[in-house]
Prior knowledge:
By secondary structure, this protein is of the alpha+beta class. It contains ten helices and eleven strands. It has helices at 4-10, 22-32, 36-45, 50-72, 101-104, 107-124, 141-146, 155-166, 229-243, 279-286, and strands spanning 79-87, 90-98, 134-140, 171-180, 185-191, 201-204, 206-214, 270-271, 274-278, 288-297, 317-320. Helix 2 crosses helix 3, helix 4 crosses helix 8 (155-166) and helix 6 packs antiparallel against helix 8. The longest helix has 23 residues, at 50-72. The chain is elongated and about 80 Å long.
Amino acid sequence: MLCSRLVRYLHSCQPSWSSVNKSLLGKLRKKTGYTFANCRKALELHNNDIEQAEAWLKEQAQALGWSKATKLEGRATAQGLVGVAVDKGTATIVEVNCETDFVARNKTFQTMVDSVANACLRFATGKLGTGNALTKIGLDSERLRTLSGEDGKPLSDHVALLIGNVGENVALRRAYCFQAHEGVLVAGYTHPAPLNTNNKTLYGKYGALVAFRKAAQGTEQETPDKLPIEQLGRLMCQHIIGMNPNKIGVAGEDIPACNSDEEKCMIFQEYLLDPSQTVGQFLADSGVSIVDFARFECGEELDIGTSPEQQRNLDMAVEVGG
Length: 322
């Protein structure tokens, strides 16, 4: 619902009820969520054409949103959500920030996160690599703002409208997109675990993507309790979120840390869900290998404890072999 300032913004003269179709007024109000006064004004100006009235309302709301966004620019946005979405061989992880956790729990804000994730999926779909296993594309804040939403408008317009609605500064912080090739699979997960897993986009304060592949046929160990391949991806994302490795590691090249509690190389870490074995052992038993991964923590400082892979220049496609 638009704020009272928008009512004043749209006000010109005392409206005439006789010029407005009350049935259309109720329909427009229900469809858009704008106030009766705003909807009535829109129908008056457009001779009860509901489509033109709706378009006009959105234009005015957009203008007010941009005005408020300019005023709020620079205010700290340490809260928000990490969103993860997977569509076959394409996956994305995004971070959208706001000022308070109250707004982060707002359905309108969550819809914004979903819109950003879907825009990233559309952007990444069809990004062909050069024969390597994975194309990994990083998007910074400025690049994210230029991506198109489902309505064709840039995400910066959607952010301005959201700012106008919630009254807080909102920022698109970063994203990674994975485009898998050559039999590589991708999976994603967020924490806390989402309550409604039917949504295409998962939300949480932490999120992870992992790209992995099955071992060559005949090399994996056949065990009666072997997990489904889709579940393995989710379990590895849970480990990445909980244990925060900074690289995958290569057996024979990397050396385990002296203190297991300080281990940051994934294959040497104790597996989160079964500390009796390392991640390397779990992967070998499961018949999979990790190609690459990404982990976001909402509001984290990017220059502290960030891996070389996470520090790669954003807005560039990185080809990952393996």
